[in-house]
Design a protein that fits this description.
There is one protein chain. The protein is built from 4 helices and no strands. It is about 70% helix and about 0% strand. The model has no long low-confidence stretch (mean pLDDT about 90). Helix 2 runs antiparallel to helix 4. The two termini are about 30 Å apart. The protein is mainly α.
């Protein structure tokens, strides 16, 4: 699903902006999942994996689909290719944007997880979350 990317920059600037969005979504999702699973705490690995993958759904699936589509679809007509590329924001840097979105989601999950561990150690919780 594509979100409105018309305000985003081009090249590395757009990639960093997309990565920052993924970072924020993953960060918030980890805290939300931790709160939702407070009765039966999840393992650290499950919490990290689920928050990272769920963050990629709204943030990276549109660009990832476009990247795969343009590489593997048989677009025989230059007119069809031009029409499809017109709907993509910054098609030259789509691979960079996908990479930044994936790294942003992973980094956001890890930073939130480290903050959870730090907060629990300060509170004296010895739970297996």
């Amino acid at each position: 699903m594509h979100y409105d990317q018309s305000w985003m920059g081009y090249g590395i600037v757009g990639g960093m902006q997309a990565g920052a969005i993924s970072f924020g979504v993953a960060f918030a999702l980890l805290w939300l999942l931790r709160w939702l699973s407070r009765q039966q705490p999840w393992s650290h690995a499950r919490l990290l994996a689920v928050s990272c993958l769920l963050a990629l759904v709204p943030t990276a699936t549109g660009d990832l689909w476009d990247l795969l589509y343009f590489n593997y679809a048989g677009l025989q007509s230059p007119l069809l290719l031009r029409a499809k590329l017109a709907g993509v924001h910054d098609p030259d840097s789509i691979g960079l944007r996908v990479l930044c979105e994936c790294l942003g989601a992973l980094t956001g999950s890890i930073v939130a997880w480290l903050l959870v561990l730090w907060r629990d150690s300060r509170r004296g919780d010895n739970g297996s979350t």
